[in-house]
Amino acid sequence: MTKTTELKSRLAEITDLHRAAGVLSWDHETYMPPGGLGTRAEQLSTLEKLAHELFTREEIGALIETATAECAPDSDDAVIVRLAKRDYDKARKLPTALVARLARETALAHDVWVQARRESNFAKFAPSLQTIVALTIEKADALGHNGCRYDALLDNYEQGMKTAAVRDIFTQLKAATVPLIQAISERLEAVDDSPLRRDYDEARQLALGESVARQFGFDFTRGRQDKSVHPFCAGFSPGDVRITTRVGRNELAMALMGTMHETGHALYEQGLPVEFDRTPLCNSTSLGVHESQSRMWENLVGRSRAFWRYFFPQLRAAFPETITDADSSETFYRAVNKVMPSLIRVEADELTYNFHILLRFELEDDLLEGRLAVADLPAAWNAKMQTYLGINPPTDALGVLQDIHWSGGSIGYFPTYTLGNLIGAQLAETILVALPDLDAQFERGEFGPLLDWLRTNIHRHGRRYEPAALVERVTGRPISAEAFVRYAKQKFGELYGLN
Amino acid sequence: MTKTTELKSRLAEITDLHRAAGVLSWDHETYMPPGGLGTRAEQLSTLEKLAHELFTREEIGALIETATAECAPDSDDAVIVRLAKRDYDKARKLPTALVARLARETALAHDVWVQARRESNFAKFAPSLQTIVALTIEKADALGHNGCRYDALLDNYEQGMKTAAVRDIFTQLKAATVPLIQAISERLEAVDDSPLRRDYDEARQLALGESVARQFGFDFTRGRQDKSVHPFCAGFSPGDVRITTRVGRNELAMALMGTMHETGHALYEQGLPVEFDRTPLCNSTSLGVHESQSRMWENLVGRSRAFWRYFFPQLRAAFPETITDADSSETFYRAVNKVMPSLIRVEADELTYNFHILLRFELEDDLLEGRLAVADLPAAWNAKMQTYLGINPPTDALGVLQDIHWSGGSIGYFPTYTLGNLIGAQLAETILVALPDLDAQFERGEFGPLLDWLRTNIHRHGRRYEPAALVERVTGRPISAEAFVRYAKQKFGELYGLN
Asked: Chain B closest CA to A152's CA: distance in Å?
């Protein structure tokens, strides 16, 4: 056995532990009875602790060193060893006790958050969040940074991306979208989204969502959909990818568009290079690129006119009592594209969405640098909602308590959503050159060519390229807001008659 | 930190790993998509391997030794350390590679078995079973025995029980029940079970089963019920106990009696001493005692006349179109107690059930001692079915392929079912002395007194006493077939008018 083989066999076992923790987390959010909470937190803590301990042993470092010398420089194994080294160097900076404590505290905080949100009681969640912020600061400092803790955390989700670059992108975005939203806000009534709020049977919504996922290419022999408080996608291997959704009787878009979104994530996970399964290479390259896939299927497909021309008959067949003769594909194409400053991020339109992210990004940065106390978070949240979107959350459940992320310790994660929007739009411009009749394909319900393109150009690479390098390799340009701004101006200009 | 505390903290982490594996297995049998199989097998193998590695380290042995000296002899900690020592000494005999290989092979074999059973194709399952039998022989020999491999395996499920003792009990049972079954077989038509095979909506069957479980005392905030191919109960802590069931439109007893059975297991798991959670003490003492709990609720409660007097109105309310005015509680009391030699163990009546076990016990013993080849198993199975029950399985799906156990490597496990039947009847005689108006309580739907008695006398002890010692402590007698035989003669004599 070569040292490379030995290293890969160790990495495979560590992957298994992380994936086992993934299954336990999925269960926690889908089926686990409340009584399981305490021991589940211990189980997750033990798994993460052990994975960290096994990975950060001196002998792994020695194996990496020998394997680096052993592998042909441009072999796949060399890529795997390089990724392992990057992860190893980072992991070595984190004390095992901190990793274990973060896993336990976040597992416990999840249910506190669920209950606090249900009761709209921020004070109930504040102590958990306080602990998580303190541990996250400890984590950022352990990882190391040049005076900006956010850099250390962002790098975990978006390898190589800097906080300053995120700020620049937001500045670019704000400059272009503030006037656009301003112009739209004078003609808000031009688009009517009330058709989404009629009475839609929940079971049929779920069935329709699964059908759309299948038509997009989700392979249900290698995945499934369940319900959870907060929708998510979790891949335990390319052969087992779970998505979740939530459904409301008078909210057609919530389950339907949410399922399209999670399907986009799932298609990436199902398309990862399975021949490298249980190595670091069989992973997404970043959350930003992950989000570009979900937003691609949710927005660029699911919110396109061509898709709705194809899909409208299916909607009508699913809800014959609800869809009237006065409705057409255009009714729903317009409805799902209404721009309206609103309270909930995951239900926001494509334009105002990024301001939800900007707000969170700024608050997180302030928390990490000690400029903002956890107790003052609701007031700060509400003030920024007023500044960026001109609205005031009536309750904390509809404000600062809405997202799962902080309860899970995912601080530094939010900017990847906006990066995903931008990357998605940038990819779409390239795709349209390669597949000029994409719209005609969507109208015929043919999503295979798009999926094939994504499989070939994004999915199959796994973690081979850093996110910025991958995007530049595929689109010929660095990540920027330009394509998104062009797309938004064109689409919303037409929808709101601004041209 | 004392060495005892350190030992307990290590044991807690090892428990977490086993429980994580338990959650992964539960998911495997309930929700996992088929594509997850390969990686799930790797995950389970890694978890079991790591748990074994961590537990069998020299330093655990040293901790046990110091802790033994440290603890007050009659403290709870002394019990925990003693149990740890027993498990440690056994585990040290098993090579880690064997543990890992058994975990992987059995995870893979599960789906092979499911498919082989679906197609009634024993040849498809034979290679997996061949591997499992070979590994099990290796395991038995590693554990050590005095020329009887079955002893080494049985001890894993029923601590302290010997194969020779099981044989004696079967001899006792055969002597008493063969004439009883003989007498009944001349009057088979005296009991009509066709009411169970009418048309019962599946969703309402599931709801009714859950309702019964709740009335028996199953706490759904600390557990749940799902569907699986083969019903089972899995406890991940007293706070998270899962049961599964299966349901058939024309088979009322399958889901209903199955749910009562698994509820009996679950009540034991929910009643374990949670103050010792994540130690070896917070475990059932044996599978035989576990089965005494499931058979208690399934048979001694669920197949009693008193229960049906209480429950019949609920059944009628659930299926108003199916239950007619000609029906009464007696119709169903008699139906669920029909004796009829039949093909499927889990659907067998209380009398013929034990012959299903005897058959498996003998076949396993023959396989382990090399007197029977895997390839010859179907023929041997069918021959014994003819000898013991006078029937011939028309297909292997209804014969040798029916049980999940062998695919999971659970060889040596089956006798605990019969032990459970006997222990259950023996406990019932003692309970009736303590709670003489138990039947009147059942008729009023009061199951709390019975549950309280079981909690106090069985559940709360966890693994403190060996199974034989626990039974003798509670009933004043060693485990034997006597109480069961008295119960069976009385009940079936009355039902079939034999007296």
From this structure: 30
ipTM confidence score: 0.93
A241-245 vs A233-235, strand pairing mode: antiparallel
Q: What is the CB neighbour count within 10 angstroms for residue A375?
A: 12
Measure CB to CB from residue B42 to each of A43, A47, A278 and give the nearest one: A278
For B2-24, give the DSSP string: -HHHHHHHHHHHHHHHHHHHHHH
Torsion of CA B340, B345, B350, B353, to 10 degrees: 90
- Interface residue B43 vs chain A (CB under 8 A): yes
Distance CA A131, CA A108 (A): 11
Q: What is the per-residue pLDDT across A53-64, written as a single tens digit (0 to 9) for each?
A: 999 999 999 999
Dig out the tokens for B126 from the structure. 């034979």
Whether residue A46 lies within 8 A of chain B, CB to CB, comes out as yes
Amino acid at A373: A
- B392-401 contact pairs (CB < 8 A, 24+): B393/B343, B395/B120, B396/B120, B396/B121, B396/B122, B397/B117, B397/B118, B397/B119, B397/B120, B398/B120, B398/B343, B398/B344, B399/B343, B400/B122, B401/B113, B401/B116, B401/B117, B401/B120, B401/B122, B401/B125
Closest listed residue to residue B288, CA positions, set B158, B156, B464, B137: B158
pTM of the model: 0.94
Q: Consecutive sets of 10 residues in chain B, 499 residues long: mean pLDDT of each?
A: 94 98 96 95 94 97 97 96 97 94 92 95 98 98 97 96 96 94 93 97 98 98 95 97 97 96 98 98 98 97 98 98 96 97 92 96 98 98 95 96 95 97 98 97 98 98 97 97 97 93
Domain boundaries, chain A: 3-144, 163-495
| Selected catalytic residue, list B48, B210, B262, B362 | B262
CATH numeric code, B163-495: 1.10.1370.30
Annotation marks residue B262 as catalytic: yes
